[in-house]
Amino acid sequence: MLNTFNRALAVFALGVACTASASSLAGENLYPGAVVQPIVVAPGSARAVARLGFRYENGFGVPQNYIAAADLYRRAAELGDAFAQSRLGLSYDRGHGVPKDVILSYKWLDLAAARAPRREHDFYQRLRDAVASKMSLEQ
Fold first, then answer.
1. In sequence order, what DSSP letters do the residues of 59-125 get, joined into one string?
2. Residue 52 in contact with residue 13, Cβ under 8 Å?
3. How confident is the model at residue 42 (pLDDT cuts 50, 70, 90)?
4. 68: closest CA among 53, 82, 81?
5. How far apart are CA 4 and CA 15, in angstroms?
6. What is residue 138's predicted lDDT score, i.e. its pLDDT?
7. Within 10 A of 20 (CB to CB), how many other CB atoms are there?
8. Assuming Cys at both sites, which of 44, 119, 124, 136 could form a disulfide with 112, CB separation 3.0 to 4.6 Å?
């Protein structure tokens, strides 16, 4: 039953009838060799968009695609979802789907720590502090 739900969620997310640009990362093609397929999702819950990004990052029910995951995380993070902000920060830290950038990683992890519920706050702070330890004094 869970596999059926996973497939239905992926089909729904990809099958919504609307138009999207070929690259939703502000019109930039960050990876020129990659084929960019737009991921179209219905407007709604930022948490649902973040969870779809998690599926793409880990290949749960959909083909693994770091670029799509980072794009979905960015969409949900801009709507204020702490989970998406933390995953986007980790994507920047690792260079998964986006160029590696410790400053942007710190920014998103700091926002996640600020918005996180009490039980998750310390975890996001530790992630942010781990990224901060990689930064130079100028950064």
1. TSSS---HHHHHHHHHHHHHTT-HHHHHHHHHHHHHTSSS---HHHHHHHHHHHHHHS-HHHHHHHH
2. yes
3. low
4. 53
5. 16
6. 74
7. 12
8. 124
**pTM above threshold 0.70:** no
Q: Exposure string (b/e) for 22-43, b if CB count within 10 Å is 16 or more?
A: ebbbeeeeeeeeeebeebebee
**Residue whose token pair is 């990809």:** 14
Per this entry, what is the length of the chain?
Answer: 139
What is the per-residue pLDDT for 100? 93
**Token couple for 76:** 């949900």
DSSP summary character for residue 139: -
Tokens representing residue 33 in the block: 């060799």
